Amino acid sequence: MPDLSQIVKAYDVRGVVPDQWDTDLARLLGAAFVTMLRNAGEDPAAGIVIGHDMRPSSPGLSRAFAEGAASLGTDVTEIGLCSTDQLYYASGALDMPGAMFTASHNPAQYNGIKMCRAGAAPIGQDSGLAEIRSLTERWLAQGAPEPAAAPGTMTRRETLGDYAGHLRTLVDLTGIRPLKVVVDAGNGMGGHTVPTVFEGLPLTLDPLYFELDGTFPHHEANPLDPANIVDLQARVRETGADIGLAFDGDADRCFVVDERGEPVSPSAITALVAARELAKHPGSMVIHNLITSWSVPEVVRESGGTPVRTRVGHSFIKAEMARHGAVFGGEHSAHYYFRDFWNADTGMLAALHVLAALGGQPEPLSRLVEQYDRYAASGEINSRVDDQNGRLAAVRAAYAGRPGTTVDEMDGLTVTSGDWWFNLRPSNTEPLLRLNVEARDPDTVAKVRDEVLALVRA
Known about the structure:
7-stranded mixed beta sheet; 6-stranded antiparallel beta sheet
């Protein structure tokens, strides 16, 4: 019997296929999804929308999920190959709950499901996912639920053009100077969406690895790992491109490199986009997680907005976006959230903002982002530990009460001083502690980093 505790995560379903889950389990999960919605007072009889990425297992798993939902009387709209933000678009535009089959940047043998309510509202452990797991476990033990007297229909619908058109209404690029753009799709869904979104814009597109291939033959589709943007950096330098963009496997995250091939911090992108959104919506709130740079709340305040700090994770960000009516949200992991996009994350819309900002002035990208990249940072450093809580306690004890420092535990442990801060937080899925350090200069980053790691790895 499948062990759902191993594959139902904090925000999604994710595991190895077929070792941890398969089409039989996907069918039950589809039935559990619509049952959870009904129990919550939402009527999924009006329909749900399902999409999938390019992984070899995705079409079969998504079809089985659709069959499970339809067996209980729910109509299903299948949009086929899509990026995760294209699925969110469909959920928002069609006002339907949705399910996206993808394992994002995980290796080829993995697959997963990201689920949302109508209007792309997130589903996590505390907002439906725990109930989906409980129902599925019961049916695994006792047998599948009785089918409805009248099963739902399953229809196909194309949404790529409508998705691209919607994004193009949110950012005007028609008047920008011509730009040469290298895009590394990593054999993921960016290869499906970028050509349509960029069509007709004053951009010369240089595509890398646009062939859809869920075995990821060139590199992992995780642009936050420096090893996976080496080819993009080289192509930008070789061709004299203005900018390089890298998308992850399901193309909901976008990573940027400048004209020198140097990575641009996602915090700098968050600050840049925040300033642009606040220019359109003065006085709005902007959400940022607690690992983004000090630059982000500084720029938000300078732009007349109000920064709101929150935990790491898309379900938290989306909930805070809705609660505050925030115009924009950003994470250190290159997830970017927009009120104009149902509070959902879309790397593509963030990329269009960066292109518009770059093309709307004469300076190179490296010069443009200087104003948004003000501090030195360590990047995320992972340490494998046997006792996460014990190591966190040791670090807390070392810094608590130290003159000039404050400690908070919104998400892991954050220690702040006048010239630096660090956050140390446990992974939800692995025996790891993740450390991020920022300071006013690189020497201080190195000093704080080494001091904390000595305690973590003792």
